[in-house]
Amino acid sequence: MRRALLSVVRGPVLAVGSLVCSTVLFLLSLVGLVLIPLGMGVFLTPPVQRALRGYANGRRRLALRWGGVPIAEPYRRWPRDLRNGPVGQVERCVLLLRDPATWRDLLWLPVDVVGGFVTALLPPLLPVNFQLTRALLAPTREALLAERVERLYASRHDAVDSSASELRRIERDLHDGAQARLVAMGMSLGTIEALVEKDPARAKELIAQARRNSAEALTELRDLVRGIHPPVLAERGLPDAVRALALRMPVPVEVDVELSGRYPEPVESAAYFAVCEVLTNAAKHARARTVWLDVRGARTDEGDMLRIAVTDDGRGGADLTAGSGMAGIERRLGQFDGILAVSSPPGGPTLVTMEIPASVLPAPGT
Question: Rounded to 5 degrees, what angle do the CA atoms 291, 295, 296 make?
Fold first, then answer.
């Protein structure tokens, strides 16, 4: 009953909005396209199309909010180095005309004027209105494939850069840490060999120092190995690895893990280091008093997911575009088509959600 009453109210509002807004935007779009050969359309088309895309996105949100019909945005991303002035307007106009989504929006407008008006005006047909909007405004299969190829290209490029950066870090840590201590220990052993008969007391001091250097070198090597692939992760899997990580944090971390098995090693490694980065940010930058970590497997329409949520009661204000930590997590997850979402209003709390498409490995012997 409540849904029927809402449809009676929402339908006429949507019908009038469709008739007015779609008609005006369609006429302005046609005028802009006609005037392009004369030069004036180059300056008229970009603002009109921005308004059209804003209107189309509003209708996408209405379809989700009122009808439960999700509609993704199909628009191509613009380069960041677009110029200003007349040259920039020409570039924007060309990008808009080359985007297939622009022409689908234009096709949708007259359909919305007629079909959208009728289906919205009659409350029983309101779900048909949302499905009609989805049919014309949702990304096509070709657009989804092109976006996926572009994202895979970017993620693979980031993976190569990350691997090179990681190799440089390992080389630097070995050179400045364990290698230097091992060289010093070798020199000490040479001195001990010369002093063992002449000055036994001094030789004993150097032996003790060499023992300390060997212990410190071993600790640094263990830390280096832990930074590459933690032994606990390899031996006992992601649940115990994140629990061990939580115990090393300077703030209390409440861990809730529900996984039915092991995931592929690269996926577990990416998830582990992503959790490590988020927990470090919560303790270091957010000034959190408590952190909640939730790790579980989920089954969605798109397949199996490894879903991770990190919540803290810190000061909030986390930004994906600020700093390299979150960007590094995005690059790490992007190698597996994973996503990162952050909700962090000023004053907190901060919620970081990560999803990685992955399936549990079959148990040994099955």
Answer: 150
Q: How far apart are CA 167 and CA 157, in angstroms?
A: 16
For 162-203, the pLDDT digits (tens) are 556 666 666 776 666 667 777 777 777 777 777 777 787 887
What is the SS3 string spanning 116-136?
A: HHHHHHCHHHHHHHHHHHHHH
Question: What is the Cα–Cα distance from 295 to 360, expressed in whole angstroms?
Answer: 13
Chain segment 117-159, per-residue pLDDT in tens? 888 888 788 888 888 899 888 887 777 677 666 666 665 665 5
Strand ranges across the sheet with 253-258? 253-258, 291-300, 303-312, 350-357, 339-343
Q: Nearest 5 degrees, angle CA 57-CA 59-CA 63?
A: 115
Token duo for residue 229: 């692939």
Nearest-5° angle of CA 137, CA 139, CA 143?
Answer: 145
In sequence order, which residues have a C-beta less than 8 Å from that of residue 178 and are 6 or more positions away? Answer: 217, 220, 221, 224
The Cα 33–Cα 146 span in angstroms is 26
Q: Which residues contact 125 (CB under 8 A, 6 or more apart)?
A: 118, 119
**Nearest Cα to Cα of residue 293 among 241, 328, 223:** 241
The span from the CA of 92 to the CA of 102, in Å, is 12
Task: Say if residues 193 and 202 touch (Cβ distance below 8 Å).
Answer: no
> Is residue 86 classed as helix, strand or coil in its secondary structure?
helix
Name the helix (H) or strand (E) containing 59: helix 40-67
Whole-number Å distance between alpha carbons of 54 and 331: 29
Are the CB atoms for 181 and 220 separated by under 8 Å?
Answer: yes
Give the separation between CA 218 and CA 120, rounded to whole angstroms.
Answer: 72
**What is the distance between the alpha carbons of residues 49 and 176, in angstroms, rounded to a whole number?**
56
pTM above 0.70, yes or no: no
Per-residue CA distances from 176 to 163, 221, 351 (Å): 20, 12, 37
**Burial bucket for residue 49 (CB in 10 Å: 0-12, 13-18, 19+):** buried
